[in-house]
Amino acid sequence: YILKAGHPLLTSGERIGHDQVVFQRIESTHFVPETTEIPLYLNETETTIQVKRGRWCYILDKHTANLQQVSHQQTMLLSEGSQLNIWRAPTDNDIQIQQGWRTAKYDTAYPKVYHTHVQQQEDHVIITFDMSMVEDSRPRLVEGIVTWTISEDGTIHVAHQLKKDVRMPSLPRLGVTFGLPDRFQALTYYGQGPYESYQDKQEASYLSVFNTTVRDQYEHPIFPQEVGAHIDTTYVGLHDGNYTCAVWSETPLSMNAKPYSDAMLTEANHDDELEETGVSYLHIDTAQSGIGTNSCGPELPEQYRLLQEHYHFDFKLKFYEQTSITE
Questions:
Q1: What domains does the chain contain, in order, with CATH numbers?
Q2: DSSP letters along 185-229, please?
Q3: How crowded is residue 303: how many other Cβ atoms within 10 Å of its Cβ?
């Protein structure tokens, strides 16, 4: 809806609202180009699993179930690797519930692998981890199976079958965080935008393709906290001018990109304490706790909390350079 006539606080032609009816979504594969199929070579050590694809190399950590590094020739495309993540920097409205989160040790939980299984097929490699998120003084917070399937065209299928300890509080979030070099600034996503959107905060947003930057996604509230998520996302692309990191899924997920880690946002007490460290953080979540109004209002309704016991989610990931695209 566009304002026809001027107003003391608004100018003529300014957008004041919208309605949207989605008849058919764009297929997530529409955004991802085909890439050349190259034979895979597997090398397993005591601590890592290395899959080589021509000049590409993918390394997974057997102790954490994380994608430790992706490289092409001598170019490193991950700064901090991936991390199964259940923590978010508390918002102002998390002031009540965050004490339960901290008591549960969600903020200091780390991954632990119990068993690894590697299988090489004709055109792909399957790496399966039996793992959990633990903290020394707590039982397993989340446990289950994480599977990484690497194909000859460079597509990585990441699948999770996880179980939450229902005795513990609701989770702040559940997903995977990737740390890329901060030269990956250009951001394209197909989801709810351009404003931040959460499961209980989405009326101002609409479904479309948006082009922005990682830095512009963080709004710099005075007190550092979780901001900038986009629900209903089925494609994300981070670009550095030479390479693209693409993530896509048939099932809508929540996406968040920012130049600060959750740990940095959690520890800082004022926005001016934040300093970029050369990393672009990309969060791909199956779900995140709602925002609510609990700083001065009622508790977050249960429907917006992550209380369920079982979580199954997956997505696909591909790093590619422009010259590798199949003509």
A1: 28-324 (2.70.98.10)
A2: -EEEEEEEESS--BTTB-TT-EEEEEEEETGGG----SS------
A3: 9
Query: H or E stretch including 253?
Result: strand 243-258
Q: Would the pTM of this model clear 0.85, i.e. be above it? A: yes
CA atoms within 13 A on the CB side of 282: 31
How many other CB atoms are found less than 10 A from the CB of residue 289? 27
Please give, one letter per residue, the 3-state secondary structure of 20-48. CCCCCCCCHHHHCCCECCCCEEEEECCCE
| Amino acid (1-letter code) at residue 236 | V
Strands (DSSP E) contained in 73-220 are 75-76, 81-85, 110-120, 124-135, 138-151, 156-164, 173-181, 186-193, 206-213
Between the CA of residue 36 and those of 75, 87, 235, what are the distances in Å?
19, 37, 21
Burial of 88-120, coded b for 16+ CB within 10 Å and e otherwise, reads: bbbbebbeebbeebeebbbbebebbbeebebee
pLDDT profile of the chain (327 residues), mean per 10: 87 88 93 96 97 98 98 96 97 96 96 97 97 91 98 98 96 98 98 97 96 97 98 98 97 98 98 97 98 94 97 98 59
Q: Residue 224: which of 179, 275, 282, 283 has the closest Cα?
A: 275
**By the 8 A CB rule, do 36 and 153 touch?**
yes
Contact (CB, 8 A) for 287 and 254: yes
Q: Report angle CA 316, 317, 323 to the nearest 5 degrees.
A: 130
